[in-house]
Amino acid sequence: MRTTKLSVTAGLLGASALTALLGAGTAFAGSGDSGDSGDDKAPTEAGTSFRTAQEVEQGLRATAGASTGDYLYWSFPADAGQRPTVKATVKLPDSAARPSGATWRIDVYDGLRRRQSCMYGTQSRAAAQDASSVDLSCTLRTVRAWSEQWANDPLPGTYYVRLTAATLTPSDQGLPVSAEVEVTSRKVGGSAAVDGSLAAPLVPGSTTEEAAAAADASDDENGSSASQALATGEPEDGWSSGWWSDRWVWTAAGGILAALAGIGGYALTRGTGRPSRVPPGM
Questions:
Q1: What is the CA radius of gyration of the chain?
Q2: Cβ-proximal residues to 281 (8 Å cutoff; 6+ apart), any chain
Q3: In this structure, are residues 48 and 73 in contact, taking their beta carbons and an 8 Å threshold?
Q4: CA dihedral sign of residues 121, 127, 131, 133
Q5: Which residues pair with 21 in a beta bridge?
Q6: Res. 64 pLDDT band, cuts 50 70 90
Q7: DSSP state of 114
Q8: CA 56, 58, 60: angle at the middle one, nearest 5?
Q9: What CA–CA distances, in Å, run from 211 to 198, 215, 217, 229, 232?
Q10: pLDDT digits (tens, 9 = 90+) for 230-264
Q11: Residue 6 φ/ψ region, left for φ over 0, alpha for ψ in the -120 to 50 degree band, beta for the rest
Q12: Which pTM was predicted?
């Protein structure tokens, strides 16, 4: 009895020490991350094409000043298992110089510049005459770790947001406006997981080390500078490529339950041993 109490006490002390160590490790990791978060800044301008799209991290609000008739482009990274939501706000000029009946629209393209459909949200909206701003939103489908070549499923990589006025009259063009864009994502569980992953995320402009070395050698011979990648942004934790999902947890739990069920069934069917009325030699 004394040995049992000592074992329980030692187990509790070990668990307390482990909890303290984990708490200290978490605090240390949090203190290390807090120093890097201050360096993240949202862009205050937008690109005018896919090649000049301004990179913005998820959770940050990008702003830009433009004129009606301009095409505004931003880019953001999205990984497998995420369901991105793009929200845009266009602040219009005063009523005296407000565009009459202008319709604003946002479109989202993947790394292959394929236009992605929205699950829900107001993708386009006409500005009312007395409105001071126009709010738009687009929630994409869940990003898949792998897909068939013929499919148009969202895949891990860079995504582009294009904001523009779809319908304008000549008198409405050139009026000053300001735009805000923010991208957030909701992590979807194992229901969206697939058996497969891409060899590399769809990030336009990314090259292998061999190709980069060959380009540098060619630039040195020609006397020109090396070309830069079109997009270099990636998620804060890196590209996961869909290797982990909560399906692993459900699979392990199912295996444990199946093993317990097998043990219980064996215990119920094996009986209590040889009946007393049966001779040993039988």
A1: 29
A2: none
A3: yes
A4: positive
A5: none
A6: very high
A7: P
A8: 70
A9: 20, 6, 10, 12, 16
A10: 456 777 777 775 556 677 787 888 999 999 999 99
A11: alpha
A12: 0.68
